[in-house]
């Protein structure tokens, strides 16, 4: 349970900011029939409490010619290599997400590339990281769900006053 309760106005503020993090506080205030100062104070409180951590910009990777997505599972030689492997992965800009995992893979990554040839080059870079025994790749055919709002609404419902 959160340290403090979020009320319906907080939920509505978050909902609007999740939809578009650049929504002006004055626009949110008009929609919620409260002052812009109220929105500012509430957002600041949620930032101070760690509920809101920064804001994001959504880039259309298709328009940037980086529409190829693949997921790469890493088998590593020894868990003592993990931190250095993560540091090396962080040096490859096309690795956009990396998770330490249990199960089959020690590390699971998402990469973005221009095409299959470019993806192959990235995979070879990952394969060449010291401590990586081998990789296993799955190509994304299409992203069919990417929806933060549904989860946020479920969380809001769970913690309603």
Instruction: Write down the overall mean pLDDT.
Output: 91
Low-confidence stretches: none
Annotated CATH homologous superfamily of the largest domain: Lrp/AsnC effector binding domain/regulation of amino acid metabolism (RAM) domain
Q: Give the number of DSSP strands.
A: 4
CATH topology term of the largest domain? Alpha-Beta Plaits
**How many domains would you count in the coordinates?**
2
Element pattern in H and E: HHHEHEEHEH
Strand order of the largest sheet: 2-3-1-4
Characterise this structure.
The chain is an alpha+beta fold. It contains six helices and four strands, in the order αααβαββαβα. Strands 2-3-1-4 form a four-stranded antiparallel β-sheet. The chain starts with 7 loop residues before the first helix and ends with a helix.
SSE diagram, text form:
Layout: H1 8-19, H2 25-32, H3 36-48, E1 68-76, H4 82-90, E2 95-100, E3 107-113, H5 116-127, E4 132-139, H6 148-158
Helix pairs in contact: 1-6, 2-3
List keywords for this structure.
Arc Repressor Mutant, subunit A, 19% strand, alpha+beta, Alpha-Beta Plaits, 40% helix, 161 residues
What's the short story on this structure?
40% of the residues lie in helices and 19% in strands. With 161 residues, the protein is α+β, with helices and mostly antiparallel strands.
């Amino acid at each position: 349970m959160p340290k403090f309760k979020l009320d319906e106005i907080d939920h509505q503020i978050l909902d609007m900011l999740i939809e578009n993090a650049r929504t002006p506080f004055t626009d949110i205030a008009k929609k919620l029939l409260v002052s812009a100062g109220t929105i500012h104070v509430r957002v600041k409180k949620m930032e101070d409490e760690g509920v809101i951590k920064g804001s994001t910009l959504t880039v259309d990777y298709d328009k940037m010619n980086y529409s190829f997505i693949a997921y790469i599972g890493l088998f590593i030689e020894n868990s003592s290599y993990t931190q250095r492997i993560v540091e090396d992965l962080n040096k490859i800009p096309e690795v956009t997400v990396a998770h330490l995992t249990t199960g089959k893979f020690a590390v699971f990554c998402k990469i973005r590339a221009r095409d299959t040839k470019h993806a192959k080059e990235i995979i070879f870079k990952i394969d060449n990281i010291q401590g990586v025994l081998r990789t296993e790749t799955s190509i994304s055919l299409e992203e069919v769900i990417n929806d933060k709002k549904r989860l946020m609404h479920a969380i809001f419902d769970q913690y309603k006053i």
